[in-house]
């Protein structure tokens, strides 16, 4: 199979799984605090990755390692702790579908950062048109949310912060030496994420109620977030960025609101309206155009015929 198709497939599967995590996490917040959900998720994920590949593969060039470890430390801070902590806090204050909607702005922040920090990923007509369509879809869904739900502005602001943090993480990720396996990158990211969490456990005097894990629904949700959404999907996301690039990979995030809405209906009994469906279709169109599956020229250039 062509490597690009593998990259697209991994990005799509990852986004589909991540789109379901908002409703699942919101349910877990009935049992745990945002910090507790985060710590349990990453602890289980990290232990799983150690079991899968217990060797550390450390190199012994300490000067070179020091520079690499600084990068992994930043990855652990952004993608390993801050993003998920802020996301969990956002879900505490606003709806799962709304958080899914707002984080779909990640490609916008990612492409802005990539435009100024890379030479090979620049804005073009397809990107601008795709962004315009996707943003229109986002506003339609947001308008619907304002009519149907009482939106807490604190939750929405936190969701925007999530988008910026993940955009930074994605751009940092491309700087990692490609000789590293995706599994090792994710495991090191989780390790530093956990290191950042430990002071929080002490300062916040967090007491994790492990007895809730005896509830089969709770334990399934935690392990789904830890093993599937974190361990496996982080590896696929890392590989996808290496294969097809930041902008093409993060463009799939436009699909998150659609997946989040469907999973919210199934898990949280939220309602889907015609405005939400229309917004989802516009978001999908934005993804296709950004990925040049539909070209700007073909949309607006009249067809010519030959005699």
TrEMBL record:
Domain EamA: 6-142, 154-289
Acetylation listed as a keyword: no
Listed name of the protein: EamA domain-containing protein
Pfam families according to UniProt: EamA
Record GO cellular component, one term: plasma membrane
PANTHER family: INNER MEMBRANE TRANSPORTER (PTHR32322), S-ADENOSYLMETHIONINE_S-ADENOSYLHOMOCYSTEINE TRANSPORTER (PTHR32322:SF18)
UniProt entry keywords in alphabetical sequence: Cell membrane, Membrane, Plasmid, Transmembrane, Transmembrane helix
Keyword Glycoprotein part of the UniProt annotation: no
Organism from which the protein derives: Ilyobacter polytropus (strain ATCC 51220 / DSM 2926 / LMG 16218 / CuHBu1)
Major subcellular location class: membrane
Cellular location(s): Cell membrane
InterPro entries noted in UniProt: AA-Vitamin_Transporters, EamA_dom, EmrE-like
Annotated TM spans: 5-25, 31-51, 71-90, 96-114, 126-145, 151-169, 189-206, 218-237, 249-268, 274-291
């Amino acid at each position: 199979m062509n490597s690009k198709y593998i990259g697209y497939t991994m990005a799509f599967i990852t986004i589909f799984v991540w789109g379901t995590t908002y409703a699942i996490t919101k349910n877990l917040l009935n049992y745990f605090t945002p910090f507790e959900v985060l710590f349990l998720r990453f602890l289980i994920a990290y232990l799983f990755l150690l079991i899968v590949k217990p060797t550390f593969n450390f190199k012994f060039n300490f000067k070179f390692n020091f520079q690499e470890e600084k990068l992994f430390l930043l990855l652990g801070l952004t993608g390993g702790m801050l993003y998920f902590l802020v996301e969990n806090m956002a879900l505490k204050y606003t709806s799962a579908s709304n958080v899914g909607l707002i984080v779909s702005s990640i490609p916008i922040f990612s492409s802005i950062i990539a435009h100024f920090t890379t030479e090979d990923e620049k804005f073009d007509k397809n990107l601008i048109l795709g962004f315009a369509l996707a943003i229109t879809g986002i506003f339609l869904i947001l308008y619907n949310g304002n009519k149907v739900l009482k939106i807490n502005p604190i939750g929405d602001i936190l969701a925007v912060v999530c988008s910026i943090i993940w955009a930074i993480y994605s751009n940092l990720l491309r700087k990692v030496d490609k000789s590293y396996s995706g599994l090792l990158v994710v495991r090191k990211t989780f390790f530093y994420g956990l290191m950042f969490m430990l002071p929080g456990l002490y300062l916040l005097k967090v007491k994790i109620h492990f007895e809730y894990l005896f509830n089969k629904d709770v334990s399934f949700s935690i392990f789904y977030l830890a093993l599937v959404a974190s361990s496996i999907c982080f590896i696929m996301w890392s590989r996808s960025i290496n294969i097809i690039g930041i902008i093409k990979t993060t463009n799939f995030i436009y699909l998150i609101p659609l997946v989040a809405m469907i999973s919210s209906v199934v898990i949280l009994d939220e309602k889907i309206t015609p405005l939400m469906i229309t917004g989802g279709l516009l978001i999908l169109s934005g993804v296709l155009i950004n990925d040049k599956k539909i070209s700007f020229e073909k949309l607006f250039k009249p067809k010519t015929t030959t005699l």
